[in-house]
Design a protein that fits this description.
Blueprint (H helix, E strand, L loop, with lengths): L2 H6 L13 H10 L4 E5 L6 H10 L6 E6 L6 H12 L11 H12 L3 E6 L6 H16 L4 E7 L1 H9 L8 E5 L5 E2 L14 H5 L1 H21 L10 E2 L5 E2 L1 H6 L2 E6 L6 E6 L3 H9 L12 E2 L2 H11 L10 E2 L2 E2 L4 H8 L18 E8 L6 H7 L4 E8 L2 E8 L5 H9 L3 H4 L4 E4 H14 L1
Parallel strand pairs: 1-4, 1-5, 2-3, 3-4, 11-13
Antiparallel strand pairs: 5-6, 7-8, 9-10, 12-13, 14-16, 14-17, 15-16
Helix pairs in contact: 5-6
Amino acid sequence: MSAIARKIGLSNDSSSVTKISAHARIDYILRFSKQAILVIDESIEQNTPISGQFLDGLPEQYNAAYISLSGQFNNIQIRCRIIEQLYSGELFDPEISLAVSVTNLAKKSQQAISIVLDNTQYLSLQILHELSQLASIAKKANLKINVVMFGSVQAGKTVAENKNLFDNKLTLLSAQTGQLLSTTSALFKKSRPTWYFIIHNKWLLGSIVLLLALTGMVIKLLQQDSFNFAQPLVTNQQEKISLTNALTEPQTTVISDSNDILHKEINYPAATEDIFSALVTSAPKKTIDVPTEIASPSDIISAINLTGTNEGLLAGESTQGFIIEQPIQDIKNQVASTKPITADNNYYLSKAGYAIQIAVFSDLDLPPTFLANLALIDFHIYQRLLNNKKVMVITSSIYDEISKAKSALANLPSTLKARQPWIKPVTVINNEISVFLDSQ
């Protein structure tokens, strides 16, 4: 038996394991248990031929979607590619789970569906869970939706690490033997080197060693005579002097005039209180004059966001070392948009076309910097439900043609482009508004 078989946990005795075709096992699972299937193969190059053979064996009446994944795909792109291959021209929301959108579209068409994914190791845990839920929901709703995925051992490790999410929803299958794999299989266990603990805890071990070294140093210093004030002081002439007697002896002060004409040495007996006061009083600290700078509006906005309570500052007062030349409220009014920040659902009703979705917020208490960028375009706001919570969606104005919407998307400010805006049909927006109004 090969090394792969040993990792899976199979016996080297060929009589103890009956090898069957992976395709036969896939067909059996899709007929009876009807769960999502993940075929595990250590050789990534072999996944493509296996998935191709599975697609060739599908009946003609099946509606199939095939995607070869890579690390550049995000969740929204994967949802869009699957639904566009299955239902071209249908409107859908890429932010909604595949378990919901594909099931709703399948109920309309009443057509058998097969979703085949290659290189599943690049699939995120979110999409992997959505596909498993899709197969489970289809089984309960008597819909024929097959989900078959092919990937490397890394995909199986992702399932094993989150096995509670995939109980009775996903079946792991070996591409070599066609046998079922458990999430506790040795194939999915992480091998740790002998020095794993030391490598991953080197900072902790270094702190312990440093603490022990400091402890030994302190103990050694405590044993020296310099920490024992009860012993008499010793001078260079090896004379023992008592600290109490030395402090009570008269002290000598030298006074000289400014012209160096008269030099006179006068002995004044110093009081004990003055000596102890000089010992315990620290030298005065020097103060450094920091030059003040005139603050720019961006610096003031940063100070407002940090402190949150600077409304009372007047012109000329200082904020974190800067001089404000005008009231903060005036600056905030300049940065904020002159357009009222309110939701207007009626703007989208009875309209057709396309709009650019810019951002989604739970409320309209928006950051000042975002408001300053938003004021550069004509925007509108509507309300919708997202995960059963009310949110505010900020969009551009409505364009009657998608080409105009694409041109406006390309001309958006770079700060707004960084939020990855996308074009959304107005019919979808009106559906979301209707759902929100029905929930109120």
